[in-house]
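Might I ask for a little of your time on a matter of protein folding? Here, with my thanks, is the record as I have it:
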Amino acid sequence: MNEGDWIYEFPAAITVCDRNGIILAINAKACVSFAEDGGADLIGTNLLDCHPEPARTKVKELLQSGTSSVYTIEKGGIKKLIYQSPWYENGKYAGLVELSLPIPKEMQHFVRDKK
């Protein structure tokens, strides 16, 4: 396996953009999720163009600040965890990664603190 190859068949949508919002990579699941918007043809376009307000403003803030955002959504009866986080290259902020993970409507939660 080549470094990074696992991303393309990972069972959750992964989108990677640079610090200006230009989409650098999307995996197979993201291509399916964003098929109506262009799928793989979104590579090279701006992530901001894929988000309506107020999400566009939030993503713009994330790009400028290099901070994370984590939340859940439900669309088409499927609940998802959205995890948007900065990525780095040689220690320098390089852009955002967005993971869109399908999750059950009800999830177990475990506290793993030692007693």
